[in-house]
Amino acid sequence: MLKNFVSLKYFSKKRIKGLIKLSGEVKSHPSKFRKSLEGINIGLLFEKPSLRTKASFFVAAYQLGANPLYFSPAEVRLQERESVFDVAKTISRYLNCVVLRTFSHDIILDFVKASTVPVINGLSDLLHPSQVLGDLFTLYELKRDLRKIKFVYIGDGNNVCHSLIYAFGILGGNLTIATPKNYGPSKDILKEVRDFARVSEARFDILNDPLEAAQDADILYTDVWASMGKEKEAKMRINMFKRYQVNDKLLKLAKRSCLIMHCLPAYRGKEITSSVLDSKNSIVFLQAENRLHTAKAILISLLSASC
Hints:
Mean pLDDT: 96
Number of helices: 13
Shape: globular
Structural class: alpha/beta
């Protein structure tokens, strides 16, 4: 899995910190890396809509001198028009790397088995590691040490939440998660991360009370209540999640210096209010910007001969 970027769980603390450091170098000295992937062909195979993931990897590839090629959901239709195996085998003959954004994480795992070129997880129903690497870099850039802050995630125990769990499990730190009952993170992932936490001394608090979770928080992070693929549950989830809205009341419980994070897109007035999203505490658009720099770091680490 190390030649791919499928999940943070396959990476050591040293490797993750290396990617964060490389992201900083890329951001500070973009001209230094301008032709580092010249002649490389990178495919973006997306079954789900995307703004940040598509833009960040497409622009990253282009600015590194590579040739990005985008495949829309209608063009490929994995498992419908063609099998995952056949697509992976075929596309490996044309491209040097694939960024795959799909519904089922099993599709990514099957694609990796058949592919002979590196595969990057651009989002699955289980994980969103490229987003969380961008989040980690953003905190690093703002000099926020995971081991010295209270990081609070409020909302659905979804793919972003799972990748945050892996990140904290490997790097250490204090992660508090507040979700409605029956909407918490995967118990299997939490069980798996216990082994990481024994080494990193990470601490996890899984709660159902958002007010308790937000108390003295250094970071408040939220995401949509119904992820892509679960749109039919959206109306039902509004009633279940309304207590978990990140609003001014919740922000007042956190530290005055608390930073607001959201992976976007945001549904203003639902999981977060505009007053909080647009507040001086918000760093959501810095998060979005940094996706470009971490996308470059991921591509360079997988494809550059010097890495």
